[in-house]
Amino acid sequence: MINAFLVFNGSGQPRLTKFYTQLDTSIQQRLISEIFTLVSNRPPGSCNFLPLPPLLAASGTSSSSSSATEQNDVPSFVTYRNYATLFFIVISTSTESPLALIDLIQVYVEALDRLFENVCELDLIFNFETLHATLGEMIVGGVVIETGLDRIVAGVRAQGTVVKRPVNEGRGGSAMGAMAAGFQGMGGNFVWHGR
Amino acid sequence: MFEKSLYDLIRGLRNHKGNEKEYIQNCLRECRSEIRSQDMDLKATALLKLIYLEMVGHDMSWASFHVLEVMSSQKYHQKRVGYLGAVQSFRPDTDVLMMATNLLKKDLAASLPTLIALPIGALPHLVTPSLALSLLGDLLPRLSHSHAAIRKKTVVTLYRLALVYPETLRAAWPKIKERLMDKDEDPSVTAAIVNVVCELGWRRPTDFLPLAPRLFELLVDGGNNWMAIKLIKLFATLTPLEPRLVRKLLPPLTNLIKTTPAMSLLYECINGIIQGGILGDGEDFSAREEVASLCVSKLRGMVSGNSDPNLKYVALLAFNRIVTTHPFLVAQQEDVILECIDSEDITIRIKALDLVQGMVSSENLVSIVSRLMRQLKASSAALSQQQDGLDGQDLETDSSDEAGADARRRAKAPKEQPPLPDDYAVDVMGRILNMCSQNNYANMVDFDWYIDVLTQLIRIAPVSRAQKLDSDPSASVSGQAPDISERVGNEIRNVAVKVKAVRPPAVRAAELIISRINTDTVSSHPVVSGALKPLAWVVGEYVYQLLSADDTLRSMLNLVPRIELPEMLATVLQTIPKLFAHVAGDDQALWTSERKSTMTLLMARVIHTLEPLAQHPYLEVQERAVEFIELLKLTQEAAAGQAPSTDGLHQDPPLLLTQAIPSLFTGWELNSVAPGAQYNVPIPNGLDLDEPIHPNLGSLLGKADDLMLPIQEDDEFGAYYNQKPPVTSISSGPAIERLVDAPEEIASGSYQQPAEESYLDADIIARRKAERMERNRDDPFYILGSSRSEGTSTPIHNILQKENGPDLDIDAIPIMQLDLDKPNPGNNGQQQRSAPKTKTARQRIVIEADETLGSSGSGAATPRNYESENNSDNFAKSKAKKMKQQSLLHVDSSHLMDLSLDPENERPDDGFAHERQQREEAEMAQAMKEVQRLRLEMQRANERIQVAQGVPVEGIVVKKKKKKSPSASAAGKKKEKKVGEGEEGEATVPVKKKKKASAEKAEPVVEGSAGEPVVVTTKKKKKKVVKRVVKLDGDDDEIGGEVPTGGEIAGGGGGGGNSVE
To answer: Which of B194-208, B298-312, B887-901, B926-940 bottoms out in mean pLDDT, i.e. has the lowest?
Structure first.
């Protein structure tokens, strides 16, 4: 199952945190910052999987010999994807397919892109409720329930109109455009054809 | 009044860069007051802001009651905020949750699908066993909701309910199964069910075997890759239980592997084949062979060359799985896997390392470790460079300043490889140690090399996190796993203890490291290297091997005041007298005045160093310090009293110095003892540990105070402990073995030399060279340095030169033809270089196994226990493993295992909690009805009276009637019969009785008071009776809902109070 779904930007500021088990706020923050340090030190061209952060690893990353049943219950993958200024992170157990998770993040971003039409970080900042709603249409209680783009978007729209970021938010407009372009560029780039 | 919206808050945050903290504190204050307001809009907005701030790390657990208030709002968009707040902020200890039960029930029964979705989506985050128990009945009907979206969410929510409350499955599983079997079901619902089944599958695979045909059908013509992946994962857990599935699965899986364009599906097919044990050998061998080669070749393609890094990673994962069952298949890929160790991506490296750890042999150990050492060395060099650069700046990692820190990091990011994170470095070092020490050093060929590697490791070992964080000695790291430099130190100690042949170099390495610790670190800083503890033991125990015990003693004395960890201090304290005994205890030397003054000074110095520790808070340290101080003071007196020998008068040094103190530390040699061997020590016959030592111990001890025992030195007891056993020399084998070994040294040396230089520090290499030269000088078959001409330096030449001195005319001596048929001394080096290494070579080095007794118990003499990890390390590992089971984000599903889903196992009269719950509910409804009936009767009687008296009817009673939920009463009617028939669970019986009693109690009161003018007060009394019943039922919040005036806090202020009281 999926243990957590996180979104934060290039300076480690969280944009969405969703933990599928109840966790103290301070521990959540520690986990986020640990993952951020891992993710921000990735050399270009490395894979989309992170080693377990110290908080999750407990006994270091060297527990290759633990039995299969034990592994199924414990977070064992940290999958991430980087879009423009944002990092999308999924923490999951080994019952999830690592490559499919990469696709799942892609679906999520595409759904956001459809909802916001040319999504950028500012949209996510100001509409974090919609972020939660979109995620809620894809994952419930750590289990993936929907991967079809249309259904996800329809599900979110059924809950009410999705507003674009306030138009008068003028500051940093140029940067926004660039971010959006980044999203667009990535949006079409399918690495895995999981579906 | 001007309130901020979420938008204002965020914009404000963006506008207050720099002093965000202050801004956030202000906002939090505003939210605190806003959320208390009566205006629902204001409340919801404040909550939304709080949720936003929670995401950034500001606790909002204090607002949980307000979250409930917003959840109970009538407006959807407010309700949604409330539910989001609950999901994001409720923790296991949030106590207001039990008040939400009725709200959740109500929302689950709503008509709008978007409204139903709210509680369904939130429940997985909130659910507790009692909540699950009370909501199960409301959730189950949602499985057949007309909207597919609700159905699939309900399935998942039921799964999460089952995790905390397994009985859920018993009620829900038949319905979920029905959904799964239904071919007309919406495909996305089917996919969601498959996901849930996959999660449940590995926990209890036997229950899902009957589903195999349907699942197979879905796999073959499902057409949904997401679902196919999950199905394959599920089948991988089923095949071990039902081997016939293998034959069925192989064709479609092979087909998928060959045809699918989706990499993820391809990989999962291969993975499924591996995990399902389909690779395993059995009948139908050729087909399997084909599959195995197909899989392995695909995986090899993924790992090798410039393929996609993600594929590399997952292929390594797959190899990691294969390696346990089919090591030979993985061993064939050694070349590509070793390449991955040097990948610049740490994730890939770690996975490759996992693999490599299982692949080490005596042939490749050196080259693998060399690769890793090079990485570590390069990283530590980069790190020290970076630290030099950063020295001026302060490293603040404030979350609000993250952007700045990041910018700095980016600006700093050098072109060359960034330093490895400490955790990774520690991990790699741990692996190096594990690889080298595996199976009691089975793969180790060259222990000198190993000692050099260890020395280098100590130099580059990062400071452990724990010691960095809390540098105060009170918060010692006693309970934690030893830090990595301590582990390395332990290895040096293990080698010194176990491998007698290399004890001298090991001890010398320890000596060097200690002197380095002493000189290299700033003298005011505390000593942090955990290696000091085992190394101190080594130099103390093998003091006669030291180059200079004098210098080492001095280093140790310098280090003592800087040690903060009490355990380390205790060990070091023990070392000092050992060293002192060796330095001072020479009984051959004359007791000159010079020696006397040196000794006196030395003792004064030691006492001075130890003195402050006599008051150390750690008792072990204190005790040892006091003991040694007193002993030395005594010796000091003895030394002062002994006049130095003059020319004429021969004086012996004081016996205390030369005999007594050294005898404390010389005795049997210590061997390594297997963990748990202690438990195998048999208790001698006739020894009763519970029996008091002496019946009159108390008075004996009292007497002992004024009793002085004469000191006996040369009794049997002392002899037993102090006489050394005959030394069993291991290193001196037949000469022929040496012949084989020495050239081997050359061979390995010559091709490792360049690699070695890159990861060992220059001084280590220099020492290594010098030592080798030294060692081989006496070796007739070793050709010394290239400076000499090959032609003249035959081994014979060497021998002759040694025997006769260099000034002999060598050429005048005729060269003798030696006829040795085995190793030809002349070209031995070359021969060895080309020939494969002989395994016998390393048998010369005897590595002692851990000592143990008997063969039972945990100390059993199996190779497993020989893993030279010391006790504490293994212990720490197992502890860590235990911790891992409880790790963060872990979802506990252990209860689920105990549940049986098999319908045949169900006994009809076995009340399951859910049904029991329903029965209880029915019973409650029944009781309520009874009360209601009585009330009605009473009312009628009252009316009659009132009509008779002409008083208008009051409305209170009518209102009561409304509160009673119609569904409950209906259910009550239905279940009534069942209640009568079915055997009650034990718990329900007293409850029922109480209720009946209360109902009965109510009756006479009514009848008795009927017709009286005080009817109204009687009514009140009755109400109280009912309420008390509710309270007696304890924490069952379900019943709370049936309390008149309602437990819903939905009403806000007024009604809420009643249910909470």
So the answer is: B887-901
